[in-house]
Every structure is written in structure tokens, then in C-alpha cells.
Amino acid sequence: MTHYLNYINGEWQQSANNQKYQSINPANTNEIVGEVENSTAVEVDTAASYSHQAFVSWKKLSGAARGHYLYKAADILESRLEDIAETMTKEMGKTLPEAKGETARGVAILRYYAGEGMREEGDVIPSTDADALMLTKRAPLGVVGVITPWNFPVAIPIWKMAPALIYGNTVVFKPALEASATAAKVIECFKEAGLPNGVVNMVNGEGGEIGQRIVDNPQINGITFTGSDKTGKMVGQGALNRGAKYQLEMGGKNPVIVTNDADIDLAVEATISGGLRSTGQKCTATSRVIIDEKIYPTFKEKLLKKVKEITVGNGLLPETWMGPCVSEKQLNTVLEYIEIGEKEGATLIHGGNRLTDNGRDQGFFVEPTIFENVTTDMRIAQEEIFGPVLALMKVKNLEEALTIANDVEFGLSASIFTANIQNMLHFIDDMEAGMVRINAESAGVELQAPFGGMKKSSSHSREQGQAAKEFYTNIKTVFIKG
Ligand SMILES: NC(=O)C1=CN([C@@H]2O[C@H](COP(=O)(O)OP(=O)(O)OC[C@H]3O[C@@H](n4cnc5c(N)ncnc54)[C@H](OP(=O)(O)O)[C@@H]3O)[C@@H](O)[C@H]2O)C=CC1
Ligand SMILES: O=C(O)CCC(=O)C(=O)O
After folding, report:
1. What is the number of the ligand closest to the CA of 435?
2. Can you tell me which atom of ligand 1 is nearest the CA of 205?
């Protein structure tokens, strides 16, 4: 078992309280993947203080110089892709191909933002004074607190830290405990890329202690968070109270609409991939499948046939298609929602059980689960489950499908499967979601495009691509008169 320390001011450091957290393998709870510090608020304050000092010279570097460090970190991450992906699979359960894909995405994100150091950062705006020059330029926020979940332990920290750094901010990072060993391996890449001391810091520990102190520490000027709706609200309120800038990415209840002219095989593939890959633990995962009644029987039959072929097991095994839930807590949440669905009167047509046979008794495995006769008022149609559970809903036409699709508090991602251009245009205009996808699954994010949701899914900000600049910088309007 490897022990990972906090990373503060360029050094691996122990927490003063000497308490540890053990990160276990959700496919085999006998295996401890790593041990990290279970730190206190004191370490956050120390990290924030060094980060604040490092900011002074980091922001003075040219964008190209900062980009150089990110290119180096990308190369190191790429050279360790196999090891980091394997740690991810062992630590949070997603299959090895998915973990490798995510780590490769981390490399690509680092390179994208490294290049950003050489791109334009403002506009020239005509002044009403003919003798003046008016322009905008970007100023970094200062120290940025990065609070991340366990479901994308490489991609999410990197899509937050890389833009923070390239625009001249320094970072105090708190990864989710369930993915803390993977996070430490990512931080090793930054260390070995030679970033100046204090520019990137990582403090491990519980959200209520470490995350909360990031929210409250006055030296932290901006906070970026991905996670649950409940915690996100607290983070946003805490930041607002002390005037820190904040950005929140939270839940989803993402629909896929299948119209009567859709390519049914394609829609079935996308429903399975979007809803069940990563064991349904994506904020962009499909959870509601809204199907035209004319094709409903065919769609259902094809879906069931394919879902029955899914192999559930340890994500390191080549034959596994779906890994375990990340933790016992998450497994219990999923099982609880399955019970709620049955009590509410939905019909369970596949799955619904924990899997303990064939050596799976030491893991948090659950069957891929499908309900039908789900109505929009049910909790399984309204609340984020974050597990491999699909709710089938039958509708008469696209109008009804859109009404149901929009009848939730979330608005992150949504898909439609149709061959009709009018249906596509109607969906693009009237679907209340930050990402609308046509003939493609609801999950899936491209690093160069804005990512974020409407309604309760986000703080109405966007991450990734050029959109990241809006959060990690402040605009300065400059007026120069000769
Ligand atoms: N949008 C998304 O991508 C995600 C959504 N979720 C949703 O959230 C549910 C619960 O998952 P969970 O992991 O508990 O999500 P949380 O929102 O609790 O965790 C996300 C991050 O916030 C930290 N955190 C916890 N409490 C606080 C706090 N008071 N102040 C600041 N930071 C805090 C966590 O730390 P730590 O966990 O280490 O204590 C973790 O790093 C899931 O079932 C799912 O519905 C979960 C993960 C990702
Ligand atoms: O779909 C993806 O690749 C990213 C989803 C995501 O950001 C999340 O689940 O938190």
C-alpha cells in the first residue's frame, strides 16, 4: 500500500494531526489502494498562504512560460497513463478502457490550455474619444480553490487546474477522498514538471473540514466545485457571503428522446452507453428514456436484449463492461432508489439486485436496472440516482416528450434520436439543457467546447474550452489617453 502525503509549497507533507484515510477498491474491499492524510483546516490555511505568495511571481510570467510547464506536465502524465488509469480503476471502479480514455483526455486538456498561453486575451473597443485607446485585458483571480468529485478523478481536476494555472492563478486542490490516490499521482506530474513551489497545492481530507475551509479561507479568491447539488449550494452560499467568485457544476437528470422515425439500433446503443457506462456515475448520464409509443415495443425488446449481455465485474478484467458503484454509500443509494421506484408503482423489467456471486461479494456491484411505466411525478424520474438505472417513459409525440424532458429541476445534457430535421430544430430550441445532442448519447464532453447546465445543474457558468476564461479571470477595461 502506498501512502500519499499532502503537497504544499512544493513538498510532500504530513498533516499535523497524523490521521490517515484508506482508499479501498470498490471491486474488492479487502484491497487498500492507497492511504492519504486526513488533514485539518490548518493545512488548508498553510497551503493557501504559500499559494498566495507564489501567485505574485506566477502571474508575472508570460503565458508562454506558464504554458511550457503545462506541456511538460502533459508529457509526464502521458508517460504514466497506464499506471494512473490502473490506479483509477482500482480506486473508483470504472473499467480500464474508460480510465485510460479519461487519462488521455487529461493529457489533451493540459495541451489545449498550454497553447492558450499564446492566444489573445482581450479586445480593442473603439472609444468615443478619438485620441484614446480603449481595450480589455484579463487579470487572474489569485488563489483558486478546486473541489472535485470521485467520478472523473483525472479529467475534472485537470479541466479545473489547467485553465486556472494558464491564466495566472495558483491552486489549492481538494480531491474527493474516494479518488485521492489517483489525484496524488496527477499532482506528482505537476511536481515533476517543475512548477514553482506553491503554485499547485493539494490537501487531502474530508469535505466538511477541508472543502469547508477552502470555502471560508479569505486568501482563496475563487472556488470551482463539481459534485452534489446539496454540497454545491453550501459552497456557493459560503463563497457569496465573503465575496469570493464561485463556479458550481452539479447534478443532472438527463433524458434521451426517441422519436418514431429514429434509428432504433443507434438509439439503443446510445442509451446503454450513455446510461450505464461508468455504472451510471456521470452527471451527464442518461437516466430517463422517453420513447414514442409507436416504436416503444421494438425499442424495449432491443434494449432488454442488449442489457442482458452486459457483464458486471472488476473493471481490470477484459471481459467486464460495467464495474462496481464507487462506495457502499453509493451502492445503498442506488438500491434505495430501486426500492422507491417499485413502491411508487414503476415496473421493474430488468435487474434491481446487488450482485454477490462469482467472487463479487467483496465489491459494490449492482445489476443494470430498467424500469417501465415510469411517470414524471415519481422520484426516480425527478432525482439524480447516479447509478445504472434507466426509467422508460412512453409518449404520444415529440410535444409530450419535450414537456416531460423539461419537467425536472436539472438541465445539464439531453439527447434526441430522430431522422427528421424539424424534430431536431424543435429539440435544439425547446430543450432546457446546457448541452443538446442529436443522434448521440447524452454523456460525452469535448474539452474545447463549453460544458455546463441550465436550471439547478450549474451556477449558470461554463467550464472548459474558451468558456473557462470567464471564470478564471476578471476583465479589466483599460483606457489610455496619450
Ligand atoms: N456532478 C457530478 O459530477 C457529481 C455528482 N454527485 C452527486 O452527489 C451525490 C453524493 O456524492 P458525494 O461524493 O457525497 O458528493 P459531494 O458533493 O459531497 O462531494 C463532492 C466534493 O465536495 C466535497 N465536500 C463534501 N462536503 C463539503 C463541504 N461541506 N464543503 C466543501 N466541500 C465538500 C467532497 O469531499 P469528500 O467526498 O472527500 O468528503 C468532494 O470532494 C451522488 O450520489 C451524485 O448524485 C457526486 C459526484 C459527482
Ligand atoms: O461526460 C463526461 O465526460 C463528463 C461528465 C462529468 O463532468 C461528470 O459526470 O461530472
Report:
1. 2
2. 38
CATH of 3-250+458-481 among 3.50.50.60, 3.40.605.10, 3.10.105.10, 3.90.550.10: 3.40.605.10
Q: What is the pLDDT of residue 1?
A: 75
Q: Ligand 1, closest atom to CA 333?
A: 43
| Index of the ligand 1 atom closest to the CA of residue 178 | 38
d(CA 352, CA 293): 25
Angle 302-306-310 from CA coordinates, rounded to 5°: 165
Cβ count within 10 A of residue 377: 9
Q: What is the pLDDT of residue 57?
A: 98
Widest CA span of the chain, in angstroms? Answer: 79
Quick one: fold of 254-446? Aldehyde Dehydrogenase; Chain A, domain 2 (3.40.309)
In the 8-state DSSP scheme, what is residue 458?
Answer: B
ipTM of the modeled complex:
0.97
Ligand 1 midpoint to CA 367 (Å): 24
Domain ranges of the chain: 3-250+458-481, 254-446
CA of 261 to the centre of ligand 1 (A): 40
The cell numbers describing 165, all together, are: 494555472
pTM given for the model? 0.98
Please choose, from the candidates 169, 147, 142, the residue with its C-alpha nearest in 3D space to the C-alpha of residue 244. Answer: 142
Exposure on the CB side of residue 36, measured as CA atoms within 13 A: 26
CB-defined site of ligand 1, < 6 Å:
147-151, 174, 176-177, 206-208, 211-212, 215, 226-228, 231, 234-235, 249-251, 283, 330, 333, 384, 386
Round to whole Å and give the CA distance between 93 and 86: 10
Instruction: Report pLDDT digits (tens) over 125-183.
Output: 999 999 999 999 999 999 999 999 999 999 999 999 999 999 999 999 999 999 999 99
φ and ψ of 214, to 5 deg: -60, -40
Which backbone phi and psi does 296 adopt, to 5 degrees?
A: -55, -50
Up-side HSE of residue 46: CA atoms within 13 Å toward CB?
A: 18
Please tell me the distance between residue 330's alpha carbon and the centre of ligand 2 in angstroms: 17
> Rounded to the nearest 5°, which phi and psi values hold at 221?
-90, -20
Q: Which residues line ligand 2 (CB under 6 A)?
A: 151-152, 156, 226, 282-284, 443-445
Q: How much distance in Å is there from the Cα of 173 to the middle of ligand 2? A: 19
Whether 249 is catalytic: yes
The domains spanning 3-250+458-481 and 254-446 adopt the same CATH topology: no
